[in-house]
Amino acid sequence: MKTSSQKQAQKLANQLGISLQEFCAQIGVSSSKENLDSETVSAVITIMDEVNPWFESLLDAWVWFTSSRIKGFGDMSPSEVFRQRGKAGADSILEYVASKNMGGFE
């Protein structure tokens, strides 16, 4: 039986047209139901929900998440920040997105 986090991750991966394994690799978590980090998956879903209006499609938002370099994070992409900094990285990206949504600059 799949966990709630695994179902959420699988749903987003399906919407993006990628495998669960690829999705999990981009956010730095294991795709096994025993090791799938629910906090990280929830943070990614929250970020995708927040940045999706910035783009024409969910896939464009995912491309931003996986490849856009952010100067304030040492030119790392949001997904690299997740992989390297774990929960602290997720919190940092959430703060960055909230700031941008409020009209903040980089």
Strand content: under 5%
Please state the overall shape, judged from the principal axes of the Cα atoms.
Answer: globular
> How many β-strand stretches?
0
* Gap from first CA to last CA: 43 Å
- Poorly predicted spans: none
Number of domains: 1
Rg, Å, rounded = 13 Å
Largest sheet: none
Instruction: Summarize model confidence as the mean pLDDT.
Output: 88
**Number of helical segments?**
5
- By secondary-structure content and strand pairing, the structural class works out as mainly alpha
- What is the percent of helical residues? 55-70%
Give the ordered list of helices and strands. Answer: HHHHH
Protein name: DUF2384 domain-containing protein
Organism: Alteromonas halophila
Brief write-up:
With 106 residues, this protein is mainly α. The protein has one domain. The protein has helices at 4-16, 20-27, 38-51, 58-67, 78-101.
Topology record:
Blueprint: H1 4-16, H2 20-27, H3 38-51, H4 58-67, H5 78-101
Helix pairs in contact: 1-2, 1-3, 3-5
